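Render this sequence as a predicted structure.
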Amino acid sequence: LYSSPLVSFLRETIANGQDSQKEAGVEHPLLLVINRELNSSSDHLTLAIRDFGTGVSPERFDNIYRNIGSSTKRGSNDYIGAFGIGRFSALAVSDVVFINSYYNNVCYSYIMYKDGSSISIDKLSEVKGDFENGLEVKLDYNGGYNAIGKIARESHELQYFPSLYIQDDTGEREFTTFNNRKIYRNKHFVTSDFLNRCG
């Protein structure tokens, strides 16, 4: 289905995030975080795309997110997606995908994975906190940093998403702000005042 899995994952996930932010009336950028785990090989990265849209309630997650071909966007021309398959593009890049849905000050964490010839999604946890609504899709990527950089610089598909901010925590580039919010750099990790994570 996807001739270029990484580009497809980025395009589909960013498009879904952009649609969610449009639905929520949010205009600030989506976030792509590129991270290299400590003591990992140079090819092993973690990619996370975080939007600040509506988030997904557990009920909507069960009714929409788990079902191939289901979509909430078919009744409007205001959104990019509508076929109900883009959210599964992450499985073309990694066999395991982590999803955090931030909805009404609760973070619902899920794991999506290939289970033989089918796709399974299990709920991992539910944590209350002071979270901005939205969705985060996170996966491991073993294709190396150069592939990400090339896509960010040259991909024709991504040029249509000007509201994407790339936070590079690999040490390859240095960013200090996102949407007028501070990023705090420590010796072994990066935190900020805008991105709350659970799971």
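Summary. The beta strands are 30-35, 45-50, 96-103, 106-115, 118-128, 134-141, 164-168, 177-178, 181-185, 190-192. The two ends are 30 Å apart (CA to CA).
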